[in-house]
Write a structure and sequence with these properties.
heterodimer; A: OB fold (Dihydrolipoamide Acetyltransferase, E2P); 2 domains; 6-stranded mixed β-sheet; 21 strands; globular; B: mainly alpha; MetI-like fold; 10 helices; about 80% helix; about 0% strand
Chain lengths: ~375, ~230
């Protein structure tokens, strides 16, 4: 199933004009606040009626202004996870989880309650009221509630934004599992580069109400021209396999034959993982450095150099492990004579790769 | 109730009947009007708001007079309703109508306040989960405004029990027909030796009003606690 969206809408000073497709898997609508992401997702949900547009899941039309068609929210078969959870305070967790099921068509196999409860680890909460739950627990229940509504489309509007870092790390894996186990499209709004790197199959980047870029996540994030939330947030993704856990607390990955050392990850040996390498944590060297504390040295060829407005620039290096982005100064680039086609080494400190940068791979 | 004179019992029972009917009949209408005022925008909204609140600020005798003009047997609406067998003038039904109208603003105010405290985002969430507008109201909005409905109902009941000016103007003060508790107190005070009857009815009025207030407080608090789950 594929969600296709095209919208034109003028809203609070934003001239929204977007068209994109969200194939099965998880599509992140990525951009700063004010880029129009929430307007788009609310138009898909039917909570907002755009001036012009068409929204369809395969050939099932949710909205088509040209044909004067507008399916109200409650007929769109959605599972919407909101930023603030929005659990019903007068119902307990079990009743919240089953709320959508009352209204879902009785035919067709939906998600099994027991399975969802187990996957989200909320079995011990079923008889509690939302008021007594922590932020992370509320969000897990909200995910369960959306899944159990037997949806044809899952929407999530910055579902982690209201959580602290620890709780974010707790919820992220559930969205990874959703992406890998559910066959329907997931549209996920975020302004966090880390969430994009961890979750996205497809990225649709918005800026000022327009689609800046759309495509497969690995491709879009590895492009130095792509910095929608600022150069500090830039970082390419490598896909790798866990080769070994070493006794000194390090995990060795195999990224297409290149060894990568990181702080211990929870995945088992042989598991596929995605690693985001932040561009500002990468150094470049013309010759292979000797006597260096950094454990990861990735040889490759420079593809593109993107000068910034300030003293910095972003360099993309094609390595055997995959694309790597490095954020360095113009002065260094000049001194080293860096240019497209030049051979160099990308150096990444092991400890610069944070646990939240490592996630399960695409299914 | 041997310590009460049959006339006094009659007034008390009539008052209860009038107030219960006035409250029950106006409750669904009160919820509907409160919903319109809290959640919808439509032309004439301020006019509706004004009409609902008018009995609160008009002299009750004016409200009673207007009722007499419109709902009396010669009145515009009264004459039409008489055709279908519904007569208000000088009947207990008229007392109920007067009491209901006088109590209506209190009921609407309290329900409207609790409606405005319900986060529309919760109602949106319910609609994304497949609930139509009616279901959203029944399963999310209504349970959450229950404390306001309870408070509004009990306040309206107490107000109806105490209504005097509009009632006596509209349906007069006929023992057994339209003589409610306040009208009876007034009547007893007009005759020599009626003070002791009046006093007993005054005590009853105070007890009923206080109990209603206490009951509404306790119920609303209990329901609110159950809803918020704390």
């Amino acid at each position: 199933m594929t969600l296709s969206v095209s919208l034109k809408h003028r809203f609070q000073g934003i001239d929204l004009d977007v068209a994109f497709e969200a194939p099965p898997g998880l599509t992140v609508l990525f951009g700063r606040s004010g880029s129009g992401k929430t307007t788009v997702i609310n138009a898909v949900a039917g909570l907002l009626k755009p001036e012009k547009g068409r929204v369809a899941v395969d050939d099932w039309i949710l909205l088509d202004t040209a044909a004067a068609q507008f399916l109200p929210s409650h007929k769109r078969r959605l599972g919407y996870v909101f930023q603030e959870g929005r659990l019903f305070p007068h119902l307990n967790v079990r009743q919240n989880l089953l709320y959508g099921r009352w209204f879902a068509p009785k035919t067709g196999a939906g998600e099994d309650m027991g399975k969802v409860v187990e996957m989200l680890g909320i079995g011990h909460l079923l008889d509690r009221r939302p008021a007594g739950l922590s932020g992370g627990e509320k969000q897990r229940v909200a995910i369960g509630r959306a899944l159990l509504a037997n949806p044809r489309l899952i929407l999530a509007d910055e579902p982690l934004a209201a959580l602290d870092e620890g709780r974010k790390a707790e919820i992220l894996p559930y969205f990874e599992r959703l992406r890998d186990e559910v066959a329907i499209p997931i549209l996920y709004v975020s302004h966090s580069a880390i969430e994009v790197a961890r979750l996205a199959t497809t990225v649709v980047a918005l800026e000022g109400g327009k689609v800046l870029r759309q495509g497969a996540a690995v491709e879009v994030l590895g492009d130095p021209m792509f910095t929608p939330t600022g150069v500090r947030a830039v970082g390419a993704i490598l896909e790798a396999r866990v080769r070994a856990h070493h006794p000194d607390g390090l995990t060795e990955l195999d990224a297409n034959g290149v060894p990568l050392f990181l702080p211990r990850v929870s995945q088992t040996v042989g598991a596929q993982v995605r690693v985001r390498i932040a561009a500002q944590e990468v150094m470049l060297a013309k010759t292979r450095p000797e006597g260096l504390s950094a454990l990861n040295i990735l040889p490759g060829t420079i593809e593109v150099i993107r000068p910034g407005d300030g003293p910095g620039m972003i360099v993309s290096v094609r390595t055997q492990a995959g694309p790597v982005l490095a954020r360095i100064t113009r002065r260094s680039a000049d001194a080293l004579g860096l240019a497209p086609g030049v051979f160099c080494h990308a150096v990444v400190k092991t400890v610069a790769i944070a646990p939240e940068d490592i996630g399960a791979p695409l299914g | 109730m041997e310590w009460l004179h049959p006339n006094e019992v009659q007034a008390l029972l009539l008052s209860l009947k009038v107030s219960i009917w006035a409250t029950l009949v106006s409750l669904p209408l009160g919820v509907f009007v409160a919903y319109l005022l809290a959640r919808r925008s439509f032309p004439g909204k301020q006019l509706l708001n004004g009409i609902v609140h008018l009995p609160l600020i008009l002299p009750p005798v004016v409200t009673g007079y207007l009722l007499l003009v419109t709902f009396g047997t010669q009145g515009v609406i009264g004459a039409a309703l008489k055709e279908v067998g519904l007569i208000f003038a000088f009947r207990w039904t008229g007392a109920a109508l007067a009491a209901g109208i006088m109590a209506f603003p209190l009921m609407v105010r309290s329900i409207r306040l609790s409606l405005e405290a319900v986060d529309p985002k919760l109602e949106q969430a319910a609609s994304t989960l497949g609930a139509s507008r009616v279901w959203v109201f029944a399963t999310v909005t209504l349970p959450m405004i229950l404390p306001g409905i309870l408070t509004g109902t009990i306040l309206a009941f107490a107000k109806a029990m105490g209504e005097f000016g509009a009632t006596i103007t509209f349906v007069s003060n006929i023992p057994g027909q339209t003589q409610t508790l306040p009208s009876a107190i007034y009547a007893f005070l007009q005759v020599p030796g009626g003070e002791s009857s009046a006093f007993r009815l005054v005590v009853i009025s105070v007890v009923i009003a206080m109990s209603a207030l206490l009951a509404s407080e306790i119920l609303a608090r209990r329901v609110a606690r159950r809803i918020s789950g704390t």
